[in-house]
Amino acid sequence: MFTGIVQGTAPIHSITEKANFRTQVVKLPPEMRKDLEIGASVANNGVCLTVTEINGDLVSFDLMQETLRITNLGLLKVGDHVNIERAMQMGTEIGGHLLSGHVYCTATISDIIASENNRQIWFELPSADVMKYILTKGFVAVDGISLTIGEVKGTQFCVNLIPETLQRTLMGQRKVGDIVNIEIDPQTQAIVNTVENYLKARNL
């Protein structure tokens, strides 16, 4: 489990491609490697990945075909950076909201509105069906960042970002057309699905 409070970014050092499979090696700074062990879970752009090898500051992760298909990790190349969050521990402050690291879909940045101390970013989701989980003032994770939804219009929604988020995460470098990972708030998803199933069962 994760909290959506990204600890920083890290560069991709190398990528090894195999049939329907990829090994991604990320160069982690010392503060992100403390007590890190093989088998630990680390979120890369909000995707829960398992550490498969540690060689100094180089940490390896294996990505299956489904991960490459559903998320933006398959689009990355050597030198690109990813948002990093270590798995939460018992007693950890939950400053964002609980995340599983299971990305639901990707979205495209459709607009960026910048002001002196704020940045509003609009995202286009792939289908209207996803929008039933996107509620004004609800939670959503974008590339692993816990964010509050600002407005919702059609198949688009926006978030408002403070300077700290822009500095600590990849959001400060994002531009229109970029693809980002979306994880829906699991509580919202459970409530919406339960209500839908209830109404369907009663032909309402």
UniProtKB/TrEMBL annotation:
Q: What class of enzyme is it?
A: transferase
Q: Which GO terms describe its biological process?
A: riboflavin biosynthetic process
Keywords of the record: Repeat, Riboflavin biosynthesis, Transferase
Query: Does the entry feature the keyword Transferase, yes or no?
Result: yes
Respond yes or no to whether keyword Manganese is given for this record. Answer: no
- InterPro entries referenced in this protein's UniProt entry, alphabetically: ATP_synth_asu-like_sf, Lumazine-bd, Lumazine-bd_dom, Riboflavin_synthase-like_b-brl
The pathway where this protein functions is: Cofactor biosynthesis; riboflavin biosynthesis; riboflavin from 2-hydroxy-3-oxobutyl phosphate and 5-amino-6-(D-ribitylamino)uracil: step 2/2
Single GO MF annotation: riboflavin synthase activity
Lumazine-binding domain location, by residue?
A: 1-97, 98-195
What's its EC? 2.5.1.9
The record's CDD domains line, in alphabetical order, gives: Riboflavin_synthase_like (cd00402)
Q: Give me the Lumazine-binding repeat coordinates as residue ranges.
A: 1-97, 98-195
Reaction(s) catalysed by this chain, per the record, are: 2 6,7-dimethyl-8-(1-D-ribityl)lumazine + H(+) = 5-amino-6-(D-ribitylamino)uracil + riboflavin
Of the GO CC terms on this record, one is: cytosol
In terms of PANTHER family, this protein maps to: RIBOFLAVIN SYNTHASE, RIBOFLAVIN SYNTHASE ALPHA CHAIN
Function summary? Catalyzes the dismutation of two molecules of 6,7-dimethyl-8-ribityllumazine, resulting in the formation of riboflavin and 5-amino-6-(D-ribitylamino)uracil.
Protein name according to UniProt: Riboflavin synthase
